[in-house]
Amino acid sequence: MNRPIKLLSILIIVASLFSNVSAAKADVPESNLKIYSPQTSIISTIPMTVACDKLAGKVLVEARKRNLCPSSNSGGISPRNIVPGNCGTTYLFASNMGGGVAKFDMGAASTQGAIASASYNTSWYNWNNYRSGAVSGTNYPLSSVWAKTRVASTGAGYVTAVMTGQVVLVWGAICTFNNPSSAADITN
Fold first, then answer.
1. Rounded Cα–Cα distance for residues 128 and 143 (Å)
2. How far apart are the C-alpha atoms of 136 and 147, rounded to whole Å?
3. How does pLDDT run across 57-78, given as a tens digit for each residue?
4. Whole-model pTM?
């Protein structure tokens, strides 16, 4: 099976697993669930949140209309930092390419409209040889889905990775990644 179809199959399986989370797991936040693949890699999908403190003018008004940010006249104390709002999800999937090379499949899916830009930084650490590094960049998908694959020469060993970043939606909202992580055994 070629790699894009295999990755798509894995993502479909993960999506179906998350949609079938039983009531018995209701006390476990969905963002803490990890799915283990046969290749000893970990996939995690993490919610994105709207950064209400970074919005102003028409964009803030639109975010409030969508109930993603609190209204200034809602009474009581309102937070001045990042306010959780369902903006979509992010994911990171680390896998072994052999030859001491790790592959990082990453992306985001917006539930609030098309993504104008996606800025990311995926930091990795090899626990066997103590090497670290990062892959980063900015893309302009103009779609509600953003996906990117990057590779890094990590050397052989157990590699963990975490992705930070944000997307800017076409209507101006900034949605921050809540640090999806992944891990894989990388071979020579």
1. 39
2. 13
3. 898 888 888 877 766 554 443 3
4. 0.67
